[in-house]
Amino acid sequence: MNITIIKKLPSVEDIIGRFPLSESGHRKINRDRNEIKDILNGKDSRFLIIVGPCSAWPKEAVLEYAKKLKNLEMKLRDHLKIVMRVYIQKPRTTKGWTGPINQPDPLEKANVENGIFYSREMMVKILELGLPIADEVLFTHNAKSFQELLSWVAIGARSTEDQEHRIFASALGCAVGLKNPTYGSIDIGVNSVVAAQYPHIAILDGHEVQTHGNPYAHLILRGGQQGTNYSKEDIDIAEKEMKKHGIKNPAILIDASHDNSIVDGIKNHKNQILVVRESLNTFKNNPELLKIVKGFMLESFIKEGNQKVDPNNKESLDRGGLSITDACLSWEQTEEILLELTEFKKLL
After folding, report:
1. Residue 315 contacts by C-beta under 8 Å, 6 or more apart in sequence?
2. pLDDT by residue (tens digit) across 37-63?
3. Would you say the pTM of this structure is higher than 0.85?
4. 142, 89 contact by CB (below 8 A)
5. How far, in Å, CA of 56 to CA of 90, rounded?
């Protein structure tokens, strides 16, 4: 193969042993996983909210954000099930920083061993605060060091048609959201959910295995090249497709960011607020949609916006909670929109 071996990485046992999660933390994850499943199957009427930084870096600011989110979550938990985005892997359209698991300091050389421990420590600390966490699965072969920590998993728009990711989703014990692809096809997004709910024969760690299918695989509408897709018409199309395929626990999350936040050809992180407010107005006029739309995804950090990483000017990098990938809502904007979602739920 056209590779150079750099070094052997620590075993999964060594990684988990360095930063283990407490027994109470594991019990909390099991409860969180079950609560999320109950929201998706309709037993729990709360909104599921996946919220947090576009990319989980740097860990000091991520932990500061987590403490703020935990304090707010305690006030809103009767109406919102809040799960924090702790995305340690970042897909790129062409090239760029691929997240703290590969490069824990974006101004230094990649170091996967350091990145694994950096990411594991950060996740465990957030969990010990009492917050459930979510991650996007980009490299499935890295999953074992983190999988037991996650209460919810995303399969991204660039991965949703990939058979390996679909089979991986089929094997997961937690709920998994699969996005429609970047070109916006709702049909293909639903096909991904079908594949994730179906059992598969696969190879895992040198064994032939059968996945059991994931009945809590669900659809994430994130917009596409043709425009946004969170309208009533789009939701109706998705629901019809899921019904046609006999999807178990049919459910949709609306991703307020990505292509759903593009207005007049321009992406703006502030439009996430617009997406949520327009969706709530749609639900007021069409309450039946709440049988299938179960919540939202939001990109949010301490500071509003984002910044570019300049390797030639290390002192310019803001490490205090300003995104280095997609632009995010500020903490104040996040708090405002989560309170609005709570007030909406109180009126139902």
Report:
1. none
2. 999 999 999 999 999 999 999 999 999
3. yes
4. yes
5. 10
DSSP 147-173: GGG-SEEEE-TTTTT-HHHHHHHHH-S
Domain parsing of the chain, residue ranges? 12-310+322-346
Indicate the residue type of 236: D
Q: What is the DSSP letter of 188?
A: H
Residue found by looking up tokens 């050809």 in the block: 265
Q: Which of 130, 119, 133, 125 is nearest to 49 (CA)?
A: 133
What tokens does 289 get? 């949609």
pLDDT in tens, 305-337: 999 998 888 888 999 999 999 999 999 999 999
Q: What Cα–Cα distance (Å) separates residue 108 from each residue in 89, 180, 324? A: 17, 34, 15
Separation of alpha carbons 115 and 109, rounded Å: 11
Task: Map residue 55 onto helix, strand or coil.
Answer: coil
User: Could you give the 3-state DSSP secondary structure of residue 306?
Assistant: strand
Convert 196-234 to b/e letters by CB count within 10 Å (16 or more is b): bbeebebeeeeeeeebebbebbbbbbbbbeeebbbeeeb
Number of DSSP helices (H) and strands (E) in the chain, helices first: 9, 12
Fold of 12-310+322-346: TIM Barrel (3.20.20)
Tokens of 225: 């090249």
Q: What is the pLDDT of residues 214-258, one digit of tens each?
A: 999 999 999 999 999 999 999 999 999 999 999 999 999 999 999
